[in-house]
Amino acid sequence: MLEQTQFLGMPLKTQKQRRLLVVLYYAVLFGLAVVGLWINKRDWGPLVAQTFVVGGLLGGIRIGGPVKIYEEPILPLDMEGAVQTLNLSGRKRFDSTWSSLDERERGQRDMAHYTAYRILRWSFGLFVLGYFGVSAFAPAWLADKTLFLLWLFLLYVLSLPQAVVLWTEPEGPAGELVEVRAGAR
Amino acid sequence: MTAASYKVFGIPMEQQRARRKLVVAVYAVLLMFCVGSIVFARTAPIAYNWTIYVTMAAAMLVFGGVGGVGGRYGLIKPFPNKPPRPEPVMVDAIRLQLAPMTAGTPDESSWKNDERELSRRDRAHYQAYQVVASAFPVVLLLAALGLKVAQGSLQLAWLTTTTVLQSIFAVALLETVLAMTLPAAIILWNEPDIDLG
After folding, report:
1. Which terminus of chain B has a lower count of CB atoms within 10 Å, N or C?
2. Neighbour tally for A78: CB within 10 Å
3. In this complex, which of A110, A146, A150 lies closest to B125 when CB atoms are compared?
4. Chain A contact for B68, CB < 8 A?
């Protein structure tokens, strides 16, 4: 289910390293939350435009992250097609960026989403309770920050299954990540 | 992936066609409650409570999959795949008096999912997650729209802050109903006919 043994300079060969990446990712989101709630900024447009980039940083929903993308990516103008790439002989490209998930990976993907669904059910309830709790004390401040909080929660929702995959990916033999399949990065 | 009983209100549910009709009927009722809540929310915001209660009843008693009730209700075995909580001693004692043959721990087949059922459960949650997660960007967009209207940077005769807030409420309510019922509904919809032999 993983495509990379290294991400943003961080090695991901052991389970401990992958869990550290998850903790760091959410620590950065938390830091962003603290900064965003502290400063008085009205225009979050440029940040919101990067929602899927930030939410999909760990992969899964976009190419480029450590977790393999869940479904075949739909590229504009059929950029992988024979005409666009001038690959008229039909030979497979060496640097093909996507290979379909095998049965184990599909099972792992589905299991991660089941776990993420359960976590989301509880965390959404806590989010709503916390929101109403704070609104009893500082309603005007909270109304001002609602958009930003919703955006943060959206990032959390987008990233949760990938975080579960990284957290639960087992150790391979001798503590090393199992070699990625031929044809994938 | 079904519990011991394949009937809902006495109607057998072994056939896929019957289960699909059930799913459509349940969602039609839930949609009626959602629309009612949205209409009444204008004057009585607490009206959504009834929609949530009915959704919980549908999820627990009709669809199933909810943990803790141990496969006693609903068509689908509990998703958590854990044995049911033991009932209070008094309940057991009463049951022993009324039906001695039911004494003892519940049959494992009523709550334990096999490998195929687990993979169906996980696949249904994968599909449901995409639907549920897609509602959050909609709420975010509506909230951004509401902010623009409140700040005065977007002025349309028919668009007010109240209208936007009501739209957010409607989307959130529908999403809550789906989140509570969708994985089980997907399983019931896709599960092939059950052959009881």
Report:
1. C
2. 11
3. A110
4. no
